[in-house]
Write a structure and sequence with these properties.
The complex is a heterodimer of chains A (155) and B (103).
Chain A (H helix, E strand, L loop, with lengths): L1 H24 L2 H4 L14 H7 L6 E2 L3 E4 L3 E2 L5 E7 L4 E8 L6 E6 L7 E6 L5 E9 L2 E11 L7
Parallel strand pairs in A: 1-9, 3-9
Antiparallel strand pairs in A: 2-4, 4-7, 5-6, 5-8, 8-9
Chain B lengths: L5 E7 L2 E7 L22 E8 L2 E8 L8 E6 L7 E8 L4 E7 L2
Antiparallel strand pairs in B: 1-2, 2-5, 3-4, 3-6, 6-7
The chains are: A alpha+beta (155), B mainly beta (103).
C-alpha cells in the first residue's frame, strides 16, 4: 500500500516535472502522448478529424501524389506513400476512414525536409484512405479506396 | 527495453533518404487473445528525428500504424557522416532512441 502510494506520487511528480521541462524546451508537442492532449486521435469520422485539426473547407488536390494499393491482401500491412507538390507544406496527415481509430498519423514537415512520407498502416476493412496536406494556403487532400480481401486467394 | 531500430540514412545528391524500421507490437486495444481477453492498447504515439540537433521530422501516431512500423522521409542540408537520431515514445511511456551516421 505504502509502496503503491509512493509509486503513484513518484509517477505524478515525474510527469509534472517532465512536462514542465518539456514546455521549457518547447518539446511538449513532440513528446506528449496523453490522449487528452490529442483530440484529433479521438476522432471517429473524417469530419471530426478536420474539426479537431482546425481545418475548414479542405479542397481535393491533384498536387498530392498519394500511392496506396487498390487491393490489399493483408490489411495489417498496407504501404502508403504521400508526396506533396503544394508550396509551404507544413504537415501530412493520414486518415483511414473505416478503422475504429480513423486518425492514423500526423507528420510535421519542418523547413528543409521534403513533403514526402512513406509508411505502412492497418486497414481493418475496405475503406477510403485520405492524405491531408496542411499548407499556409489552407488544407488539401487526396483519397484512395483500399479494398481489403479476406482469405489468402487474392480474390 | 525495446529492440533497437534499424535506420538507414543515405545521401543521394543533396537529399538524405531515411528509412526506419521500429520493433513494436502496435497493439490497437481492439484485439482479443486466445482466451477472449482484450489485449490492452500499446502503441507508439510520437516520433522525432534530429540531425545535428536540428529537428528534421516529428510525428504523432495513432494505433492504425502497422506493427513493427516502417517510416521513410527525406531532408536537405546534411552531409555524409552527420548523425541522425530517431526517438519514439509509446503509450506506456517507454521510449527508444537510436542514432546512425549518414552514409
Amino acid at each position: 500500500m505504502i509502496n503503491s502510494h509512493r509509486r503513484a506520487f513518484f509517477h505524478v511528480t515525474c510527469r509534472v516535472g517532465l512536462s514542465a521541462l518539456m514546455v521549457s524546451f518547447g518539446l511538449r508537442s513532440a513528446l506528449s502522448w496523453a490522449a487528452e492532449s490529442r483530440p484529433a486521435f479521438e476522432s471517429r469520422t473524417l469530419d471530426e478529424v478536420f474539426k479537431a485539426l482546425g481545418i475548414s473547407h479542405p479542397q481535393q488536390s491533384t498536387d498530392i501524389t498519394f500511392k496506396a494499393p487498390e487491393i490489399a491482401e493483408n490489411g495489417a500491412v498496407v504501404p502508403l506513400e504521400v508526396e506533396s507538390k503544394l508550396p509551404q507544406t507544413r504537415s501530412i496527415i493520414l486518415v483511414v476512414e473505416k478503422n475504429p481509430h480513423v486518425m492514423t498519423a500526423d507528420f510535421s514537415i519542418p523547413e528543409g525536409t521534403e513533403p514526402f512520407i512513406a509508411t505502412r498502416v492497418k486497414v481493418a476493412e475496405s475503406s477510403n484512405v485520405h492524405a491531408i496536406v496542411k499548407t499556409d494556403a489552407g488544407a488539401f487532400y487526396a483519397t484512395k479506396l483500399v479494398k481489403v480481401t479476406l482469405g489468402g486467394c487474392g480474390g | 527495453m525495446a529492440d533497437p531500430m534499424r535506420i538507414r540514412a543515405m545521401l543521394i545528391g543533396d537529399l538524405v533518404e531515411v528509412k526506419v524500421l521500429m520493433a513494436h507490437d502496435m497493439e490497437t486495444g481492439q484485439r482479443k487473445d486466445v482466451d477472449g481477453n482484450t489485449v490492452p492498447a500499446h502503441y507508439i504515439v510520437s516520433i522525432g528525428a534530429t540531425c545535428n540537433g536540428r529537428t528534421v521530422l516529428s510525428a504523432q501516431w495513432g494505433p492504425s500504424i502497422a506493427k513493427n512500423p516502417f517510416l521513410s522521409f527525406r531532408f536537405r542540408h546534411a552531409k555524409k557522416g552527420d548523425k541522425l537520431t530517431v526517438t519514439w515514445t509509446d503509450t506506456g511511456g517507454d521510449t527508444r532512441t537510436d542514432e546512425v551516421a549518414i552514409g
